[in-house]
Design brief:
alpha/beta, Rossmann fold, Isoleucyl-tRNA Synthetase, Domain 1, 3 domains, five-stranded parallel beta sheet, four-stranded antiparallel beta sheet, 43% helix, binds adenosine monophosphate, binds zinc ion
């Protein structure tokens, strides 16, 4: 029996879909104002594991993921400028160009990491009428009030507020920082619709004048449109529990009076070197950064699979090196199995299958499932094990079927010194200092590495 941990009830519960054999699932998607970093991507690997697990159990999926291209302000709690507008100004592009640029790379990253794309991709700016209708319905039902800068949800009208995070409204009130928006009735009231000043780049006509939607209403309006008033699973990162997802629940459930999401599932955060990822610390690595350093995107996927999704995962390059080595060994062993002539008794294979299923059904214990694979590959070399590994790969998504085609033997990671020289060379080229760029390339060659320009960056290889 498949069991998932439900953030709402704080326990593992048996899972079956509401609607026959099809699971309806909503996943909070990216705000496309920048490249996705490895922390974001851990959350999408988690989404992918849910989808793979559901298929493994024989279910069909109707999955929706949003692309937020308006309304996500610098702070999740309605403060600051729209992230898209800031990126547009800084890069001298329109918000639509910004969205297109980063969404394209996002989908390329998903592909590289073998993350399946949900059946429906919903762009926020394509759903403005649905959002306006939603806000209107909340207003008609008396759940909102108007201030000089927008329409706000009145959380005092929704007694269930805080059910997901277990937060108590009075505690929140006591702990609130000095309120920036004094017109709000409660600090946790949130914007459903923001009135735009005339210079704001993204704005639409509405019953409340020109403006743009709040971030939370996007997910409520789009999940309702495609999945209905009550659906099976909602996924996202743990950071969304206290604000974004509480607000989604308030919007959904005040209007319908019904439970909107049956299973709330949250992936824990990725840390870097034990701390927070942030641009100012220069540790928000992207898939391209890892590739530049000589890692395969699946090394990162493998690295993530080794830690349960509800545990924090600390990213270090030493950890990624270990994952890379271990994946290379796994592939090498599987290649030997693919060519092996021993036979493994059916009962033995079935017992591996049973253990594997048990691990996956127990709230996706993928690290344990990997352990079962690593035990199985110790068997005498046999095609049966190679085939078993490929059955398991429907969950892992590690391209184990390619192992028989021989992955190159363990490659060493590119030393930091070489990467630093390559970065200097890129900077020199950007500054049109070609003499210096050539000099740096020669230096890199002399140290035994080649550097080639490829779209979006460079490729460094050992000569
Ligand atoms: P955003 O584009 O900021 O809305 O974030 C996209 C997804 O990445 C959300 O589901 C976040 O919860 C998740 N996320 C952001 N930072 C991290 C992190 N350090 N580790 C894991 N997930 C993250
Ligand atoms: Zn969302």
């Amino acid at each position: 029996m498949l069991r998932f941990y439900n953030t709402l009830t704080r326990k593992k519960e048996d899972f079956t879909p509401l609607d026959g054999n099809t699971v309806r699932m909503y996943s909070c998607g990216p705000t496309v104002y920048n490249y996705a970093h490895i922390g974001n991507l851990r959350t999408y690997i988690f989404m992918d594991l849910i989808r793979r697990t559901l298929r493994f159990e024989g279910y069909k999926i109707k999955g929706v993921m949003n692309i937020t291209d308006v309304g996500h302000l610098m702070a999740d709690s309605d403060d600051g400028e729209d992230k898209m507008a800031v990126a547009a100004r800084e890069q001298k592009l329109s918000p639509w160009e910004i969205a297109e640029k980063y969404a394209k790379v996002f989908f390329e990253d998903l592909k590289k990491l073998n993350i399946g794309v949900p059946e429906i991709i919903a762009k926020a700016t394509d759903h403005i009428p649905e959002m306006i209708a939603y806000v209107q319905a909340l207003e008609d039902a008396g759940f909102s009030y108007e201030t000089s800068d927008g329409i706000y949800f009145d959380i005092a009208k929704f007694p269930g507020y805080g059910c997901l995070s277990g937060a108590n409204l009075d505690d929140q009130l006591a702990g609130a920082r000095v309120e920036v928006n004094s017109e709000k009735h409660h600090p946790a009231d949130f914007a459903l619709w923001k009135k735009a000043d005339p210079r704001h780049i993204m704005q639409w006509d509405s019953p409340w004048g020109k403006g743009y939607p709040g971030w939370h209403i996007e997910c409520s309006a789009m999940s309702k449109k495609y999945l209905g008033d009550t659906f099976d699973i909602h996924s996202g990162g743990v950071d969304h529990i206290p604000i974004h997802h509480e607000n989604e629940i308030a919007q959904n459930e005040s209007l319908t009076g019904k439970q909107s999401v049956r299973f709330w599932m949250h992936g824990e955060f990725m840390l870097v070197d034990g701390g927070k990822m942030s641009k100012s610390l220069g540790n928000t690595y992207t898939v391209a950064d890892l590739e530049k350093r000589g890692y395969h995107p699946l090394d990162f996927r493998f690295f993530c699979l080794n830690t349960h999704y509800r545990k924090k995962l600390n990213f270090t390059f030493e950890g990624l090196d270990a994952a890379k080595t271990s994946r290379a060994r796994l592939n090498a062993q599987l290649k030997e199995h693919a060519e092996g002539s021993n036979r493994i008794p059916v009962e033995k294979l079935d017992s591996y299958r049973e253990d594997f299923k048990k691990a996956i059904e127990d709230d996706m214990n993928v690290p344990l499932a990997l352990g079962i694979l690593f035990t199985a590959i110790k068997e005498p070399k046999s095609k049966d094990i190679y085939e078993l590994a490929n059955e398991f790969d429907s969950i892992f998504g590690l391209d184990l079927n390619k192992a028989a085609l021989a992955e190159p033997a363990e490659e060493e990671a590119v030393p930091a010194e070489i990467i630093a020289l390559s970065d200097e060379r890129t900077a020199a080229k950007k500054a049109k200092n070609y003499a210096l760029a050539d000099e740096l390339r020669n230096k890199i060659t002399a140290m035994g590495y080649s550097v080639t320009d490829v779209p979006g960056g460079v490729k460094i290889k050992k000569i």
